[in-house]
Amino acid sequence: MLPAMGPRGLLKKPMNILAKFTNYLRSAKTELQKVTWPTREETLRYSALVIGVTVFTAAFFASLDFGLSKGIDLMIQSRTSAAAVPQNLPPATTPVVPDISPSSVDARDANGLPTNDFTVQQLPDSPTPPAAPSAQ
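User: That's the sequence. What structure does it adopt?
Assistant: Structure tokens below.
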């Protein structure tokens, strides 16, 4: 049952915090006396088991990581060696540009007829919009 509340929301009887804490410690001690503790040999055996399983698991994942990383390294090496450029080529200094003279170019006009007019016409960047019809 809850204690009665006063008009201002305070308890009529103030709680003794020290008594509650002492009661908690006594009940905790009583519960700890009921616990069945393992013997020293059981504790050592279970600790060794936990350490052994931990070491085995760490070794398993380390070997798995090592094997997978070596496998991926071999795959990358095989792909790069297959696509490697021969090493005996001289280094490229400037790109090779063909010499094109107007006489070697087969120029044709819009109708497909040969022409000697090599002027370049600048095309507009975007088509001009059609003019809006004027209202009359």
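DSSP finds two helices and no strands in the chain.
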